[in-house]
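Predict the holo structure. Ligand: iron/sulfur cluster.
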Amino acid sequence: MPKEIEVKSVLNKTKKRDSWFLCDYTINMYSGCSFNCLYCYIRGSKYGTHMERNLGIKVNAIERLEKQLATKAKKQQYGIIVVSSATDPYLQFEKEYELTRQALAVIAKYRFPVHIITKSDLVIRDLDLLKEIDQTAILPADLQEKLGRGTIITFSFSTIDEKIASIFEPGATSPSLRLEALKTVKEKGFLSGISMMPMIPYVSDLGAHLEELFSTFTGLGADYILPATITLFGHQASDSRTLVFRAIEKHYPELLPKYQKLFKDGAELPAYYRNAFHRKMKELAQKYEVRDRII
Ligand code: SF4
């Protein structure tokens, strides 16, 4: 069972809005993430090998958010709130706790814009609140013309292959349900696209699979596709590098020497690999006529 925890603050201001996710603020209603992706960037000793066992539910988060947003709104400090940056807003526990839903109601009340980033189809439950935010949020001055609306919904994928997903994202909602959710939000007129992050070398970044990803996402109406390569950290039992290497050894043993070579100098893939990947992404974005940025 998850721990119930109390926090001093839940709304974090970023130093500068990033061009990928347009993030001015972040909120995380949960501490840790029960989706337990092996490649997750928040991994490390803090949450342990099985992140779902150390999940924290921030039980006073709504009360804190209400106070923090009231202050920001009074000062007219409007900005896009990314939900979430270090967990998923729609973990299985969200069905019971409804912290994300309550947070969206507070965000709607104070008229802040939101960017939902998720690996779950549970976001469909909250489309009523997200529609209200889309229509009534007050945007920062520099985004009023360029964005012109209050809700962005991004679905995150490292693959659409169910077997690969079950190895690398064992706790997340299946890709097919995420695709159904993308279809629904596009049919309902939301701005929505894909975080294709991270692509798993030689497993989900092969030419045929990349074509399938672009063709599937654009076929469902995705407005943008944001691709990125993988970064793997650490040598402890709960670190992403250890866990991904172990999965490669078990499920794709023939790839292990390639992985050892790719990551021999550190956490990032070598420049030649990243450059080739980004060239391929540009090519596919042009072919499928999809943006590689939200705006
Ligand atoms: S859904 Fe995101 S935050 Fe959760 S484990 Fe996966 S990568 Fe990490």
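The chain has a mean pLDDT of 95. Residues 100 and 170 are 22 Å apart (CA to CA).
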